[in-house]
Amino acid sequence: MLLRDTPPMTHLLEMKNIVIEGFSSEEEKWMPIIKSLDLTLDKGEIIGLIGESGAGKSTLGLASMSYTRGGCRISSGSIVFDGMELFGKPNAVLREIRGVRIAYVAQSAAASFNPAYRLLKQYVETPIQHGLMKFAEAEEKAVDIYKRLLLPDPEGIGYRYPHQVSGGQLQRAMVAMAMACTPDIIVFDEPTTALDVTTQIEVLAAIKKITREFNTAAIYITHDLAVVAQLADRIMVLKNGNLVEENNARQMLANPKEAYTRKLLSVRTLTEDRVLSDAEDDVVLEIDNVSASYTGKASEKVLEDINLVVRRSRTVALVGESGSGKSTLARVITGLLPPLSGKILYDGKVLPPALKARERENLRIMQMIYQMPDTALNPRQKVRDIIGRPLSFYFQMNGSDQEKRIRELLEMIELSPKKYIDRFPGEMSGGEKQRICIARALAAKPELIICDEVTSALDQLVAEGILKLLQDLQNELQVSYLFITHDLATVKAIADEIVVMLQGRIVEQGPKKKVLDPPYHEYTDLLLSSVPEMDPDWLDTVLKIRKEKGIGLTHDR
Amino acid sequence: MDFLKLMRQSPLSARIGLAIVLLNLLAALLAPVIAPYGETEIVADVWLSASWDHPLGTDHLGRDLFTRVMYGARNTITIAFVTTLLSFIIGSMMGFMAAATGGWADLIISRIVDILMAFPTLIFALMALSVVGTSVMSLIGVIAVLDSTRVFRLSRAVAMDITVMEFVEAARLRGEGILWVMRKEILPNAMPPLVAEFGLRFCFVFLFIASLSFLGLGIQPPTADWGGMVRENAGAITFGIMTPLWPAGAIALLTVGVNLIVDWFLKIASGLKD
Questions:
Q1: Residues of B with CB below 8 A from A393's CB?
Q2: Has residue A5 got a pLDDT over 70?
Q3: What global pTM score does this model have?
């Protein structure tokens, strides 16, 4: 690594008065995304950019290498990197810097790797293209970096294809790729957002380790304050392209000045503790010894011996990492995937295993809300049609009755009927769309709603609002929830009972108090201790404890 | 108005395309009004060159070529349009059905389509037409069925991507039947690629009818039809007479016009990204 003498008072990267605009095809003019922001970064420093989606975090992060996404442009400002002005430089000059001295790590490694090439081939591309290394040399370095990132089998992993490694490993392989030319700065764009908590902690640890070892400066973009607290020296809070607050990480967490920062800090505090009487046997849904497989073979079960009970107007949270069978269980309950064995009982009556055999009434009482509101709503239907269809389908409610009910439902989900009734999904934000999904479910007057990761695609503040809404609706309508999630903060907030799943089996279940209070089940403990906390020392502490206990960081399967 | 805004933003090529198509449509609609003579009326000597009385000259029987080209537009465009529409109705219904039901239904429909596609279209059409006769109805039917195989493939592929979306699953969980899923959930979302394909298919059908007419199995004389007119007057070319080039030019012009519009539409449908 080159050591450069930097004169005092100059920064490694200094962005001044950056204005970035995006072209709005609706209004046919350039609209500002970033409104005159400054950003400085010193050698080895990690700066965290946080804010909700649309705040301009990624746009600002990418601008550090004088790059904008399609349809955007940097209209003014200056970007001085290591004494060199990057703004307005031709691409040929910028190419010498991008990837070599400033590298980028994208949110979804799965979407960013080319599935047709082995990891190593993609790793060596940048150093070889820039003529910095020969293949053998680059490979040697790759193995070294893989080792430092704690990837299993560092010599061999480069010869695997992207689909042959797990999500967390792939994300680390991408960090390795960014490190290939030993850059001065790495831009991390939400590198752990798509990962489970247990995997997230591995990636965080790897990023922290490698940036320290190479004294690399980084811009870390995330919407999760607790994540950024583990890594960043300094934090900038952005909102709508403006700076809300900038401060040393520890100071900001201890003493946030702006109301908006405080709001971000206080998410995840929503809790509700209901006293559960033991005498409750008003069981709505009962899953009795269910096993299921996608292939129909008993040897390839994805669910094994699941027993589960949902009581009226109670919330059962189904927790586990991706691949643990949570969503499969939802498919079995709804009848999309008939089980191999076992029974599903509703109100004490056995439901036909397959969707087609179920009666309309059976379908009505059980509704579903999905993770991605974008794909769960037909983009070519207006809100009126989306919510109106269950009304006419289940209740033969048409005309002005229907219209009245749609308006009522919109009121219930706290959206103004006048404003929203004639909108298309594309004209609404993620949180609003999710509310429409909730209204569609409510329109059927269900007794049980299956919520499949309903908040994980949303910003924290928006997610908080959705959870609050679901809670209020439960108190009002006495509806039960089966809440599928990998986010333990959500569980803490709304669950009455918790079911922990691992590899298709239930490892622990019981009332929230019992599951979340010691003594923990081993796997529950792993899940719980992996949830980032606002404390900046949390990551180091957890890693230390795990090392003492002898729990390997990589529990990759 | 959205339409006005769309027109204002349209590139020059699309405007040229629209102008060509409009011109053809006007000719087709107003043929009986504008045309100086009757469709099959013999008005002068054969293969006269252009004059004030006969702007494009006369054909091999002494009929006015300008009149025949206008009536030809009427016949050829109408038949091509009806045929394409029919092939889209058959093809997209089958395609959506195959995608929405999957399993055996998909397998059976797909294999039938594969068999139909295994034969070269022109030969299959010639064979089928010689069996069922060469009336306009049978022409439309045969070409529509043959062409629907291509539409099937596209609409099945498009619908496959849509059926895996959660809003389709939501409709199924609600208990909706397959017709609702096809009509309300899949169709509106499959529309942009299908409309673009419609323009393209229209050109192919149009050329196909022209070539069938040229081979004598298409639209039968004395009905004016561009492909047939090229064939009837083909002999004139050896004498250096322009006559067959006019209907041929009309075919080329309309094809180019429709394609210019399709290109523009494809660009819009693909999501406004440059």
A1: 174-176
A2: no
A3: 0.80
Q: Do B188 and A380 touch (CB under 8 A)?
A: yes
- Interface test with chain B among A377, A378, A383, A396, by most B beta carbons within 10 Å: A378
Q: Looking at beta carbons, which residues of chain A come within 8 Å of B274?
A: 70
Average pLDDT, chain A: 86
Q: Report yes or no: A291 and A305 within 8 Å, Cβ to Cβ.
A: yes
More confident position, B3 or A384: A384
Has residue A100 got a pLDDT over 70? yes
Instruction: Say if the Cβ atoms of A363 and B175 lie within 8 Å.
Output: yes
B237-256 pLDDT, tens per residue? 888 788 888 888 988 899 89
- Please indicate whether residue A102 or residue A300 has the higher confidence score (pLDDT): A102
Q: Decide if B274 touches A, using CB distance below 8 A.
A: yes
The answer on pLDDT for A38 being more than 60 is yes
| Polymer length in residues for chain B | 274
**Tokens linked to A110:** 């799965």
Q: Is the Cβ of B169 closer than 8 Å to some Cβ of chain A? A: yes
- Average per-residue pLDDT in chain B? 86
Q: Which residues of B touch A383 (CB under 8 A)?
A: none
Q: How far apart, in whole angstroms, are the C-alpha atoms of residue A514 and residue A500?
A: 12
In the stretch 316-345 of chain A, residues with CB closer than 8 A to chain B read 334-336
CB contact under 8 A, B184 and A377: no
Higher per-residue confidence, A144 vs B268? A144
Tokens 């000045």 found at: A257
Do residues A366 and A334 touch, judged by C-beta distance below 8 A?
yes
CA distance A148 to A553: 13
pLDDT at residue A271 above 70?
A: no
> With contact defined as beta carbons under 8 Å apart, do B81 and B137 qualify?
no
CA distance B66 to B72: 10
Q: Which residues are within 8 A (CB) of A253 and not within 5 positions of it... i.e. 6 or more apart? A: A225, A229, A265, A534, A535, A536
Residues of A in contact with B273 (CB under 8 A): 70-71
